[in-house]
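Lecture notes, part 5. Sequence design as translation. It can be helpful to think of inverse folding as translation between two languages: the language of shapes and the language of residues. The source text, in structure tokens, appears below.
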């Protein structure tokens, strides 16, 4: 379910803090995912996307109001090292947001009485990672 810009502005203009999710890599490792790669969780976008949904869902269940996408180490060139082309790499980066939105939708389906003030933020890593 899309959130309109006015809803975001209204929520962010309050003095109530937003609870952001925890360390995605730590959560994934806790789920048994091996992140021993220069791409960290970005590799999991291709290899085990359901694990990313599960991680975001765990954060929402723990009270997070913001899920940060699994795109910190995701660059076109970096993901192309997984033997995918530039278009596929770009799609995987976009998928990082889609997976967080999927977890949000699943959480709201499980908790229909909860507020829809749950957000997804894109994670952008340091330029040097590219």
């Amino acid at each position: 379910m899309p959130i309109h810009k006015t809803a975001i502005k209204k929520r962010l203009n309050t003095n109530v803090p937003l609870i952001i999710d925890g360390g995605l890599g730590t959560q994934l490792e806790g789920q048994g995912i091996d992140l021993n790669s220069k791409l960290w969780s970005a590799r999991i976008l291709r290899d085990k996307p359901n694990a990313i949904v599960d991680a975001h869902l765990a954060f929402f269940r723990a009270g997070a109001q913001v899920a940060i996408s699994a795109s910190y180490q995701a660059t076109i060139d970096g993901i192309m090292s997984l033997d995918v082309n530039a278009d596929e790499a770009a799609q995987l980066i976009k998928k990082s947001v889609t997976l967080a939105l999927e977890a949000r939708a699943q959480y709201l389906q499980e908790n229909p009485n909860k507020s829809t003030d749950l957000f997804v933020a894109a994670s952008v890593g340091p330029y040097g990672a590219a």
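The translated text above is only one of many valid answers, since several sequences can fold into similar shapes. The chain has a mean pLDDT of 87.
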